[in-house]
Amino acid sequence: MEWLIRMKEALDYMESKMEEPLNIDDIAKVAYSSPFHFQRMFNMLTGVTVADYIRRRRLTLAAQELAISKVKVLDVALKYGYDSPESFAKAFRKAHGMAPSTAREPGIQLKAFPRLSFHLSLKGDKEMDYRIVEKEDFTVIGKSIQVTTRDGENLRKIPQLWLDANEDGTSDKLIEIGVDKDLLGICAEMDYPNEMFSYWIAVEGRPGTDPQGYATTVIPAATWAVFTSVGPMPHAIQSVWSRIFQEWFPSSGYEHTGGPEFELYLPGNPGAEDYQCEVWVPIKKK
């Protein structure tokens, strides 16, 4: 219940500051959370990033103001954090499908992104299998892309990366290079304020392993909460991710460290009812 109150207070704070500069450190402080953990929780609970939520709410309020007043477009743009009429017009057109001046026309239909709210929902009727693992830093070998969470780009590009890797033989080649036959899907260098992160399809490499032309990076030592997913992909593991942030984190006394997180895909048929894979999340005590 406490985390729900804190998230609500953070939403109230954001809403009260829509006409002022908003700093993620200040927002997270209202929720008694680290900036990264707050942003990760918010994204997993709502399906949008903090930055995207603020942007959509500001454009909603701007449209309402233009529709009911004669205020200048420039003044509205500056009021809601845009440096120029051009940047405001571009964002406004993307959100509403029209120029800001068109919003003043009688009977024009505008899009509204309503204020979010959190409601108490009693869950936890189903057990969650997890274990705590201490793991030293390790090197991974693989292929990576930079993606943004803006406009759901990550939801399109990451599945395409996997499709390409499975079709062009990348997945099989990496399995041959790796310590074992487990493939990793890694989210790293997560930059929520700028809505960017890098995504890797990779394997854990042995010391001195020839990467054979693939990229390498080091996953830092961490304490990990490891959750088991059982069921066909991708629905089973998506459900696990949701429960981690909706149920486990709010009641665990842990928070996300801000380091890389990954899914570990074990050998087997991903479409089978009994297929098992794992979610690894780096954690620290609050």
From TrEMBL:
<dbReference type="InterPro" id="IPR029441">
    <property type="entry name" value="Cass2"/>
</dbReference>
<feature type="domain" description="HTH araC/xylS-type">
    <location>
        <begin position="8"/>
        <end position="106"/>
    </location>
</feature>
<dbReference type="InterPro" id="IPR020449">
    <property type="entry name" value="Tscrpt_reg_AraC-type_HTH"/>
</dbReference>
<dbReference type="InterPro" id="IPR011256">
    <property type="entry name" value="Reg_factor_effector_dom_sf"/>
</dbReference>
<dbReference type="Pfam" id="PF14526">
    <property type="entry name" value="Cass2"/>
</dbReference>
<dbReference type="InterPro" id="IPR009057">
    <property type="entry name" value="Homeodomain-like_sf"/>
</dbReference>
<dbReference type="GO" id="GO:0003700">
    <property type="term" value="F:DNA-binding transcription factor activity"/>
</dbReference>
<keyword id="KW-0804">Transcription</keyword>
<dbReference type="InterPro" id="IPR018062">
    <property type="entry name" value="HTH_AraC-typ_CS"/>
</dbReference>
<keyword id="KW-0238">DNA-binding</keyword>
<dbReference type="InterPro" id="IPR010499">
    <property type="entry name" value="AraC_E-bd"/>
</dbReference>
<dbReference type="InterPro" id="IPR018060">
    <property type="entry name" value="HTH_AraC"/>
</dbReference>
<dbReference type="GO" id="GO:0043565">
    <property type="term" value="F:sequence-specific DNA binding"/>
</dbReference>
<protein>
    <submittedName>
        <fullName>AraC family transcriptional regulator</fullName>
    </submittedName>
</protein>
<dbReference type="Pfam" id="PF12833">
    <property type="entry name" value="HTH_18"/>
</dbReference>
<dbReference type="InterPro" id="IPR050959">
    <property type="entry name" value="MarA-like"/>
</dbReference>
<keyword id="KW-0805">Transcription regulation</keyword>
